Amino acid sequence: MTTDPPAQAMRICALHDLPAQGGREFVLAGRNGPLRLILLRHADRVVAYVNGCKHFTGTPLNPNGIGNFLHPRDPSLIRCGVHGALYHVETGACAHGECAGQGLDPVAVMVRDGAVFLA
Fold this sequence. Notes:
Elements: E1 11-14, E2 23-30, E3 33-42, E4 45-50, E5 77-79, E6 86-88, E7 94-96, E8 109-112, E9 115-118
Antiparallel strand pairs: 1-9, 2-3, 3-4, 5-6, 6-7, 8-9
């Protein structure tokens, strides 16, 4: 997606900071404290979710602060490193585990001039 970011849009990272396969965590200053996000390249766009498993609210998907978030055998799925819950990269919807009926919280982002911004 390529559109002009609003004047107040916050730059998160350069597009090249994201791996071609997998994702990366970014921690931003939020109104109510730090906001932990995961950004992933998917097809020809970038998707972003709050880094929190729905099995135990607030538990990060990468418990040690490392990992690329994708299931090792199916890169279309995000894997929780704590509980093993699986979420679809494209939608954030639960695919398997104790997150049934729930999904990751999406965060709107846009790509412009080689950078990723909060939308």
